[in-house]
Amino acid sequence: MNETETDRVLRSMPREGFLKVTRPPAPEMSSEQKVQLIRKANELFGRGELEQAKKIFVSTRYSDGMIRLGDLYARQKDYLSAFQMYKMAPAPDRAEAMILNLTAVLKNWIKE
């Protein structure tokens, strides 16, 4: 019996399942420090320095920034990264949409 691509993908998945995405605790900072960091992150985001912006958005728990990153990842078809940002934001409606997209991808893989 020939091994299909689906069999190879399923075999490569971790037996213990996928890792749970959690949000690290935000460092203690004043509101003014938080505002300054978010401004810096928005500048970084505008310049395309996404990893640096992401670190600040996550550490300050700035949900709007995480949602904008999630939207960008979704447009780039990086659905897993988008889902992670939406879960951390939290943005349950957008996370649900990503689950539907990821489910559709899995269904297509299984059909193949």
What would you note in describing this structure?
Helix 2 packs antiparallel against helix 3 and helix 4 packs antiparallel against helix 5 (79-88). The relative contact order is 0.11. This protein has helices at residues 5-12, 31-46, 50-60, 63-75, 79-88, 92-111. The protein has one domain (28-111): Serine Threonine Protein Phosphatase 5, Tetratricopeptide repeat (Alpha Horseshoe), CATH 1.25.40. It is mainly α.
**What would you call the shape?**
elongated
Q: Approximately how much helix is present in the residues?
A: 55-70%
Task: Give the oligomeric state of the chains in this entry, treating copies of one chain as homo and distinct chains as hetero.
Answer: single chain
State the major sheet. Answer: none
Kindly list the characteristics that best describe this protein.
112 residues; mainly alpha; 6 helices; elongated
What does the secondary structure layout of this molecule look like, with pairings?
Blueprint: H1 5-12, H2 31-46, H3 50-60, H4 63-75, H5 79-88, H6 92-111
Helix pairs in contact: 2-3, 3-4, 4-5, 5-6
In short:
The protein is mainly α and 112 residues long. It has 6 helices and no strands.
